[in-house]
Amino acid sequence: DIRIAAEGSSIGQPEINLGIIPGAGGTQRLTRTVGPGWAKYLVMAGLPIGTDIALKIGLITAIAPKDQLME
C-alpha cells in the first residue's frame, strides 16, 4: 500500500489507553511494517508519533501538505 499522511499529523495505537489492544490484526500488520521494536513501542506506550518519525520507520510512504493531501 501507499501510505501518505498530512504534515503535522500524529499516528499511534491509542487503544492501550482504554485497556484494550489494537483490533483487526493491527498488532500483526504493524510488526510486519515497522518491525517488532517500533510495533511494541507504539502498542505498549500508547503515545502518538509525528509524521517525521513515521516516515523514518517506514510506517508511511510520504508526507504531503495538508491542502494537497487528497491530490
Compact summary:
The protein contains three helices and four strands; from the N terminus they run E-E-H-H-E-H-E. It is α+β, with helices and mostly antiparallel strands and 71 residues long. It has one domain: 2-enoyl-CoA Hydratase, Chain A, domain 1 (Alpha-Beta Complex).
Overview of the structural elements:
With 71 residues, the protein is α+β, with helices and mostly antiparallel strands. It has one domain: 2-enoyl-CoA Hydratase, Chain A, domain 1 (Alpha-Beta Complex). The protein is built from 3 helices and 4 strands. A two-stranded parallel ribbon has the order 1-4. Strands 2-3 form a two-stranded antiparallel ribbon. Helix 1 crosses helix 2. The longest helix has 10 residues. The protein is globular, with a radius of gyration of 12 Å. The two termini are 17 Å apart.
Keywords:
71 residues; alpha+beta; 2-enoyl-CoA Hydratase, Chain A, domain 1; two-stranded antiparallel ribbon; 4 strands; 37% helix
The first-level CATH class name:
Alpha Beta
Helix content: 25-40%
> Which spans have pLDDT < 50 for at least 5 consecutive residues?
none
Task: Indicate how many domains the architecture comprises.
Answer: 1
Question: Oligomeric status of the shown chains?
Answer: single chain
Task: Report Rg.
Answer: 12 Å
Overall pLDDT confidence:
93
Largest sheet: 2 strands, parallel
